[in-house]
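#onboarding

Welcome to the new folks! Below is a worked example of what a typical request in this channel looks like: someone posts a single protein sequence, and someone else replies with the predicted structure as tokens. Don't worry about understanding the tokens yet, we'll cover that in week two.

Example request:
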Amino acid sequence: MKIAVLVSGGVDSSVALKLLVDAGHDVTAFYLKIWLEDELSYLGSCPWMEDLEYVKAVCDKLKVSLEVISLQKEYHQKVVSHTIAEVKAGRTPNPDVLCNQHVKFGIFYEKIGDEFEKIATGHYAQVIEKDNIFYLKRSPDPIKDQTYFLCNLNQAQLKRAMFPIGHLMKNEVRSLAESFDLPTKNRKDSQGICFLGKFAFSDFIAHHLGEKIGKILEFETGKVLGEHKGHWFYTIGQRQGILLSAGPWYVVAKDSDKNEIFVSNNYQAIDDLRISFEVSNFNWFSGIAPVDKELLVKVRHRSVPRKCFIELINENFAKVTLFEKDQGIAAGQYVVFYDGDICLGCGVIK
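Example response:
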């Protein structure tokens, strides 16, 4: 097949590229430049330059042609602007879900047209087809599984998506990189949001939204415990960055209009709020919502899939009840639903 391979300069996409070359496919590597050079120059030197050097080294070794496509303007429109607006409104968006939906498997598809049969990446996920419907299947590596970040893709996007390392464990990918002697074999995994690289999300938010002093209130009593520099620096379930004694303290709730955050060190008070929640803006891969069915759900990328029951109120609104309580449920987060290892789609917490 003729395959476009998105490469990032990391070990995962490098191994994916090598496997496709060895399988005899006609591959072209693409590097998407989304780093907001002018806007983020205050953070320091551009990390994409180092990434691109690794990409070039891998492509040279494998004798694969490389194209660099700049999608900075589109990325800002589709991902960054939405992220800033959601954070300002007190919600917890996921830029990486938006990036996959709108950029890597969206605008990039449009850029390359129909010339390539498949678009491959180094994601830890698998695509399966059942009854002419495409679904995602979780990676066997529970820590690296990235189906959460791919939950908002549509059928046209899934049909062309290809994940050559999705069936592997991370240590197997590292071993393959070593055996192939790839230039990225010893490179550390990137952490954080894709357009920020090694830089802190809080610094990015501070640049756009600034600081605004507000009250830290005890959830149970309403007593003022201290001050914070803006509700947008906190999300539900967070405990880092709350500089109060007699902790640990968790963020339980926020009032974005008043710029107040509510904290508690009473686990029971938190748990009592974290057993059920409302979800809308569904994306079901099959186009049909599961009816009154017990499923597994992830409320964050790194959360353990928990049993839940979904009660549909209408086609775009449901109540989700967890079998076990969770402390980190926040408005704006994506919730991803599974039937065993099969990802069925997602919704957004109201």
